[in-house]
Amino acid sequence: MAEQGGAFTDRLARVPEREWDKRAGPDALLEGAREPFVLRGLVADWPLVEAGKRSARDARRYLLDHARDRPFKVSIGAPGHDGRLFYDAEMEMNFRVGTGKLADIFGGIDKAEGQGEARTVYLASIDIPSHFDGLDDANPIELGDRDPLKSIWMGTRTRIAAHNDFPDNLACCAVGRRRFTLFPPHQFRNLYLGPIDHTPAGRAVSMVDFDAPDLAAHPRFIDAMAEAQTVELEPGDAIFIPSMWWHHVEGLADFNILVNYWWRRTPAWLGQPQVALNHAILAIRDLPPEDKAIWREQFDHYVFENDEQVTDHIPEKARSILARLTPESAGRLRAFLLRTLSR
Which class for 139: exposed (0-12), middle (13-18), buried (19 or more C-beta within 10 A)? Predict the structure, then answer.
């Protein structure tokens, strides 16, 4: 049985909305937050938002005034697939990826505007400092002592399958409208994830079509729906998505711009957990069950429990990587791993 997306989202809980101090910004609300929330009007005074309220073309012209003369990566989908950037029937991508100057990409959007069955055009996760001059300064946000990655997402109507990210994420709707549907981290089993090494954008995605969930093929999705939250953002609104929360994102207007900020709660030199998962698949997953059980115990001992039994019997100066990691010891460990993986 397939269920239409409108009925699906209408029944979901709404992402909570929080009040914020206009003088201090969202810093205090973000500190230690582990649940999603919406901040209405957080960036409503941005010049980019004001340009978009005049027209989509004004927003594009505003961005072109700041764009650097360099290639921009763009994904292009065929007409008629409703903006869903996903797999095709052969599990290959249903879009192609190329590069071009932003003026040329926007020129194509200008020509296709209002034509109905236009191609999907999506510029995803474009690094702002390296692709624009002064855009960040002209459209500021107060995030305390965080040093986030700053990205902009631009394009026509899109549907981006549910996925998660390791960093915390503050996503600001600048132009158009965005619908977010969120699921807690533990719901990954009920989202029917696709491959982790062959993905539309680097992260495993849900294979469920949120516009028409097939509950015969994906029956556990009902359990995910029971814990889902949804919200539509208007220009100037923002949503906080905590680390590892699954989010399905839709660009609902003919042209949409999102600006987001990613930051980690831990130092970047600690590495990416996804890399460790991939390595564990390579080295452990296909071992005999009795060997896997032994390694499970060792992972619990050294990684997940990591209590005093690990190190108390070792002189403090001799604990090496079993001690709390530092940038120096993490660097030595990374170098060791690179040497072993290259053999």
Answer: buried
| 150 shares a domain with 9 | yes
Domain boundary among 206, 238, 265: 265
247 plus 331 within the same structural domain: no
pLDDT tens profile 12-53: 999 999 999 887 789 999 999 999 999 999 999 999 999 999
Amino acid at 159: R
CA distance 229 to 17: 12
State how far the Cα of 149 lies from the Cα of 260, in Å rounded to an integer.
Answer: 8
What separation in angstroms does the CA of 196 have from each of 29, 93, 231, 240, 281?
A: 32, 14, 27, 25, 11
Where residue 188 sits, what CATH number does that domain have? 2.60.120.10
- Domain boundary residue, one of 223, 243, 265: 265
- Cβ atoms of 180 and 245 within 8 Å: the answer is no
Q: For 79-129, what is each residue's pLDDT tens digit?
A: 877 899 999 999 999 999 999 999 999 999 999 887 766 899 999 999 999
State the pLDDT at residue 116: 67
How many structural domains comprise the chain? 2
What is the value of pTM for the model shown?
A: 0.94
How many CA atoms within 13 Å lie on the side-chain side of 178? 28
Examine the domain organization and report whether 243 and 320 are in the same domain.
no
Give the structural domain span for 285: 269-341
84-85, strands of its sheet edge to edge: 13-14, 229-233, 178-183, 246-251, 158-163, 84-85
Cβ atoms of 72 and 105 closer than 8 Å? yes
What are the pLDDT digits (tens) for 236-259?
Answer: 999 999 999 999 999 999 999 999
328 and 247 belong to one structural domain: no
